[in-house]
Amino acid sequence: MSTIEHTSEIKIRVGLDAEKVPVRIDWSASDMHEEGVTEHCKAMMIALFDQAHKDTLRIDLWTKEMQVVEMDRFVYQVLQSLSQTYLRATNNKKMAEQMAQFAHYFGEETEIIPKTGN
C-alpha cells in the first residue's frame, strides 16, 4: 500500500429550496482555491466505487436553472471524459473507442456537435 504524502479536501455545498430541490451548488478544492473561495456550478455527477460491496454509489444533482441544452452538453462531455478515463485505466482501446463513438453519436443527436454526414 502506498504512503499518503499529501491530502486535498474537496468541499461541495448544495443550497436547497423548500421542496429540497437544488437551487445552488458551490464547490472548492484545497489545492485549487484559497480558503473560503468557492465556485458555482449548475450540475455535478459523482461516482464512488464501494470497495466492500463492489457497487457504485452516485450523486447526480443539478439546479433548477440548468437548461436542457446545458444538460445535453454536460452529459456529452461526461461521456467523452469517461471514454478517456476508461482507456487510461484499462488500456482497452476497443471498448474506449466504442464509448467515444457513442459519445459522438449522442453529441450529434442532441446537436451539441454538428453531424458528420455518415
Report on the architecture of this protein.
The longest helix is centred in the last third of the chain and has 23 residues, at 68-90. Helices cover 34% and strands 29% of the residues. α1 packs antiparallel against α2 (93-109). It has a three-stranded antiparallel beta sheet with strand order 1-2-3, with no helix packed on it. It has a two-stranded antiparallel sheet with strand order 4-5. The radius of gyration is 18 Å and the shape is globular. The protein is of the alpha+beta class. The protein folds into two domains: 1-64, no CATH class; 67-111. The chain contains two helices and five strands. The model has no long low-confidence stretch (mean pLDDT 95).
Strand order of the largest sheet: 1-2-3
Q: Write down the Rg.
A: 18 Å
Helix percentage: 25-40%
Helix-strand sequence: EEEEEHH
Parts with pLDDT < 50 across at least 5 consecutive residues: none
Structural class: alpha+beta
Q: What is the typical, i.e. mean, pLDDT?
A: 95
Give the strand content. Answer: 25-35%
Query: Total domains, how many?
Result: 2
- End-to-end CA span: 48 Å
Number of helices: 2
**Rough shape?**
globular
Largest sheet: 3 strands, antiparallel
- Say how many strands there are: 5
